[in-house]
Predict the 3D structure of the following.
Amino acid sequence: MKQYVIIGNGVAGTTAAENIRKSDETGKIVIITDEDLPFYYRVRLNEYVSGDLAEQDLVAKKEGWYRERAIDLKLRTRVTDARPAEKVIITEENEKLLFDVLLVATGSHSFIPPIKGADAAGVFALRNIRDARAISSAAGGNDHVVLIGGGLLGLEAGNALRKLGKQITVVEFFPRLLPRQLDVEGARRLQTMMEAMGFSFRLGAKTQEIEGGNRTKGVVLEGGETIPTGMVVISAGVRPNMELAASLELECDKGVKVDERLATNQPDIYAAGDVAEFRGMPYGIWPAALEQGKIAGTNMAGGDMRYEGTTMANSLKVVGIDLASAGNIDAEGKLESTVVQDEKTYKKLVMEEGKIIGCIMLGNTKGFNRVTKAMAEEQDASALSDLFSAK
Ligand SMILES: Cc1cc2nc3c(=O)[nH]c(=O)nc-3n(C[C@H](O)[C@H](O)[C@H](O)COP(=O)(O)OP(=O)(O)OC[C@H]3O[C@@H](n4cnc5c(N)ncnc54)[C@H](O)[C@@H]3O)c2cc1C
C-alpha cells in the first residue's frame, strides 16, 4: 500500500488528495497543515473580515469529506525538517512520517517590506484565518486604517474594513492603482469610483516608517506627511513558502521548480500551487493552484497528466465595481489594442500579431471568461469583435 504525504491543505494540496483517491482506492493519504481549520476558501477571507461570512461558512471541506475518502488530515502540525534519501519528513514535535510520494503544497506568505516599525502591534497582513481573526478583533478599536499596498488584495482588504465603517487610506508606491492589472486610464477610473465610496489614496508614495513603537500611532511617508492611525494592513505581495526546500534538497528559484508533470528534481517529490515555479513563473492564483493540484495528484498516483500553464486572470471582488483583467494589459501603450469606452465602461483588448494576449474590463465584465478562453487558445481578436466594438 502506497503512502502519500501532502504538506499544505490549501486548494493545491486538497485537490491533489482528491485526485489521488480517484486513482488509488487503497493508498494511505495524509495531509498535514499548521493551520487549525480544514480546507477553507482563502480567497473569501475578506468576507469574514467584513462580517459577511461566518468562520464555519469559510470551510469548504467538512470532516465528513475527509472521512468518506479515508484521508487523514493532521491540523496544527508544522513540518520543519526532512530527510529525502530516507523518505521521511519531520514535524516540529519531532514526529517522523514516512512517505512513498510527497507533495509540497505549502503555499505562500505575505511579503513584509523592510519598513521601520512594521513589526509593531497594530500592523497586520492578511494571508490566513489567524490573520483574519487578528484583523477583525483589532478593527473594533480603530476608526482609521492605513493600507500599505494598492494591489488587488490590498483594495479588497480595505473594502472589507470600509464596510465595517472604517475610514481607509491606501498608500501605493506606484503612481496608479493595480499597476499589474490596469493601465493609466483604467486606474484613473477605478480611483474615481473608489474615492466615491470613501477611500482616500496616496499614490506614488513611499512609506518611510510606521511610528509608535509598541503601539502604532501613524504612517510616515517620504516627504514628511504623517497619516495618524492605530492600525496598518500591509499588502505588498506574496512569496512562496520555501522553508522546506533546503532540507528536501529541492531545486528552487522564485519558487520550487517543477516540470510539466509537477515533479521536482527529487524522485517522488512533487510541488503544486503558490509554492511551485513552472517555466519561471510562480503563479500565486487560485485557478493555477487548483489545476496544478489536480495534475500533481493524478501523477503521484501513477497517472501521466501534463501542465501547460494557466492564463493569468484577476478580478476585483468589491461590490459595486466590476473589474477583471488578464494577461498583458499593455500599460505602456506599446502594443496593438482596441479600446471601447463610455462614461461607465472601459474595455481594452490587447493583441500581438492579431492574437489576443490581454484585456481590461472595467464597468462591464460580461464575456470575461470568453476572453480568457480565447487567450488560452490563441484565438484571433476577430473572435471577440462583439465584445470589443463601439455600439
Ligand atoms: C485574502 C486573499 C484573497 C485572494 N483572492 C484571490 C482571488 O480573488 N483570485 C485568485 O486567483 N487568488 C486569490 N488569492 C490567492 C489564492 O488564495 C492562492 O493562490 C491559493 O490559495 C494558493 O493555494 P495553495 O494550495 O498553493 O496554498 P495555500 O492556500 O496558501 O495553502 C498552503 C497551506 O500550507 C500550510 N503550510 C505551509 N508551510 C507548512 C509547513 N511547513 N507545515 C505544515 N503546513 C504548512 C499553510 O499554512 C497553508 O495552510 C487570494 C489570497 C488571499 C490571502
